Each structure stands twice: as structure tokens, then as C-alpha cells.
Amino acid sequence: MPLTSIFQIAGSAMTAQSQRMNVSASNMANADSAVGPDGQPYQARQVVFRVAPGASQPYGEQVGGVAVAGIVRDPAPPRMVYDPGNPLANQDGYVTMPNVDVVAETVNMISASRSYQANVEVLNTAKNLMLKTLTLGQ
Amino acid sequence: MIDRISDAFRFDQQALGLREQRQEVLSSNIANADTPNYKSRDFDFKAAMQGALEGRLHLPDTHLTLTSTRHIPGKAMTPNPVELQYRQPFQPSLDGNTVDMDAERIEFADNTMRYQTGLTVLSSRLKGLLTAMQP
Questions:
Q1: How far, in Å, CA of A22 to CA of A19, rounded?
Q2: Mutation for testing the A interface, residue in B27, B86, B108, B119 having most A CBs under 10 Å
Q3: Please, which residues bridge with residue A47 across strands?
Q4: Which chain B residue is nearest to residue A50, measuring alpha carbons?
Q5: pLDDT 10s digits, B43-74
Q6: Which residues of B1-24 are buried (b: 16+ CB within 10 A; e: fewer)?
Q7: Residue A39 has what DSSP assignment?
């Protein structure tokens, strides 16, 4: 039944987008974490989405929700900051800082929140249509 | 008698069903606006409606009987009245995604309005029939 599967589609997109926002928040919070639990500087993470087609759909006709395919670590080189007074500095006086691009993360966050809002709107519309359909003939 | 009534509502029923299906496709496009390599889908409502009304749904599915494992399985499947097509992107993005959020939102709002129109028409036809049935 398509109208109920819209709930599933928009719901999965909202889950995926909120996970993206979560990862973005983690990246921004740790933009200056020079050392993590493993002794290495924090590495930025990115969420990768994939389509989660609904069951029993013929091949090539797949429409469906979103799923998080995985969280990958950003391979960008770390930021080197000159700070000879820092206990973590190497012999040249440079500290290895996380490779988080704060501007890109801000953009990511705004994009995720806009997509989330769009899906909330889709959900509301589908709900209203369903309620209207239920009052048919009254 | 009852089959006449259901015949009278068949058109509206088909139209609402297809609108519902299109709503699902469009919501899938909006949901996957950030999925890499997702291609925006849609279908031609007019063609789907014509296909549904011409009774493309009424042919039974046929399978050939296989008497040997080396036979090629022959199948005659009913064509779905809805043929999903790919939307031509105006501005494809670098990750291979072709969802244009503005276009999808407009189509979604348009489809919502048409669904509601269909509901209203069906509702008033039902009311008219009920009035005619009053003793």
C-alpha cells in the first residue's frame, strides 16, 4: 500500500539525515581534539547513503527509502599547527591536528537539516492525504 | 447491481491508485536527494492511466512448463501499467545524483492537489448516489 510505504520512505530518510547530522556534530565538536582514545588525532568521518529498495519490487523499478551504507574516515591529510609549547609537538614544533574542515561541516549540517525538513513535509502531506481518504463518503 | 456500482467507481479508483503510486515515487526522490548515483524517477500519468483503463492488468501471467533443466524459462508477464522513467536533469550533481529538489517539490505538491481533487470528486459522486438511493 503506497501511502503507508511513504511513511517508511520518509522515515528512513529522516533517520539517515539525522545520522548525518550526528556525524557532522561529532566532527565539529572534535575539530581541535589533537589526541583521541587511540593516541592519534581525531579523523573526520563522513556518512555514505544508499537506496534501500522496498521488498517485492521488480528489478529496475526500485524506488525506496535511504539507508546508511557506512561511515567512512576522511583520508585528507591532518592539519599541522605550529605550537612549540604544546606537549604533543614534534621536534620541529608542529602539532598534528584533526583533518576536520569546519566550513564544509557547517554546509553539511545545513544541507542535512534542509533535507530532514523536506522529508517531514512529505510525511505530513502523506498523513493528511490518508486522513482525508479515511473520511471518504462521509 | 453491485458490480454496476463498482464499475461506476472504477475510473476514480484507478486514478487515485495511480496518484498514490506516483506520490510514493516522488517521495522516494525527495528522500534520496543526497544519495550518490541515485537517478530521479517518475512516470507518465496519462500513459499509465490509459494503460490501466485499457485493461492491461487483466491478462494472466503465463509460464512455460519446463521438461528439462536445459530449457530456457519462458515467461509472459503482465506489463505493469506504470513504467518508471528517468527524469532529465537540468543540473546533475557531481556525485551522479539527478534529483532536482525544486522540481520534485513542485511535482509533489501538484500530485497532492490532484489526489485531493480526485478524492473530492469521488466523494461527491458517492453522495449523489446515496441521495438517489434514499426512499
A1: 5
A2: B27
A3: A71
A4: B35
A5: 999 988 888 887 655 556 677 788 888 888 77
A6: eeeeeeeeeebbebbbbbbbbbbb
A7: S
Rounded Cα distance between B95 and B36, Å, is 5
Which pLDDT score, from 0 to 100, does residue A59 have? Answer: 56
Tell me if B23 and A6 make a contact (CB, 8 A cut-off). Answer: yes
Of A66, A125, A136, the CB nearest to B112: A125
The 3-class SS string of chain B reads CHHHHHHHCHHHHHHHHHHHHHHHHHHHHHHCCCCCCCCCEECCHHHHHHHHHCCCCCCCCEECCCCCCCCCCCEECCCCCCCCEECCCCCCCCCCCCCCHHHHHHHHHHHHHHHHHHHHHHHHHHHHHHHHHCC
Give the amino acid at B5: I
The H or E element containing residue A79 is strand A79-82
B31: nearest CB among A66, A112, A137: A66
Under 8 Å CB pairs connecting chains A and B tally to 86
- Say if the Cβ atoms of A20 and B34 lie within 8 Å: yes
Segment 11-30 of chain A within 8 Å of chain B by CB: 12-13, 17, 20
What does the mean pLDDT of chain A come to? 88
Q: Count the neighbouring beta carbons within 10 Å of the beta carbon of residue A132.
A: 14
Q: A129, B115: Cβ pair inside 8 Å? A: yes
* Residue contact B116–A129, C-beta within 8 A: yes
